[in-house]
Fold:
Amino acid sequence: MSLTLVIGNRNYSSWSLRAWLYLRESGLEFEEVFVSLHTDNWREEVAKYSPAGRVPILIDDGTTVWDSTAIMSHLLDRYPGAVGWPADPNERALARSISAEMHSGFLAIRETLPQNIRIRRTTTLSDVCQTQINRVQTIWRDCRERCGHRGPWLFGDFSIADVMFVPVALRFLSYGIPVPEPAAEFMRATLALPSVQDWVRTAQDEGLALGFVDNLGKGDMILG
Ligand SMILES: N[C@@H](CCC(=O)N[C@@H](CS)C(=O)NCC(=O)O)C(=O)O
Structure:
């Protein structure tokens, strides 16, 4: 088995984080290739790995897979011990639905609260963005109320649904979005996960700033 994951900047690339976290939490060994976003040769560099021109990209023994959801489906097919879906059919349906909702939606959150792990600042929220934030928090609350007795994640045990929402928790932290209980349990589980802490630490040391004002110094505590 030889797995290579092509990712963008840890500080900015939420889709890279999802694929990377999936591999890490699945216990799969992989090599990492870094292609820096928003540089002059980005398109040329990423095109060496995928025709779609976006990260993340997985290369599995010569087979190339792109898009975070395709990468997770592929790995789950090929490596049965990989992170999967909840066992209960109703919870499975719900987990699939909220994961698809995340993958295809929440555009105002993505635009207004772009992933930038190093910053701590507030920003003005449009009604649309606030509605989407409320929707995310309702999802987390409902899942925690239903499955919280079984473990710290949305469906108790860690699943693909958690992978999809981890970067949203990091955005809420960056932009000081208040998260009421019990939805906040998901924030705490995310920030306590060693692989997330590992990603966040590396994001702090990355150079590129993309014109955002990163306002966390290197020595500042980031994990709250
Ligand atoms: N639907 C894709 C989204 C991938 C994506 O938009 N990746 C961003 C980085 S987080 C990217 O490569 N952006 C560069 C570009 O669009 O040129 C997925 O789930 O992987």
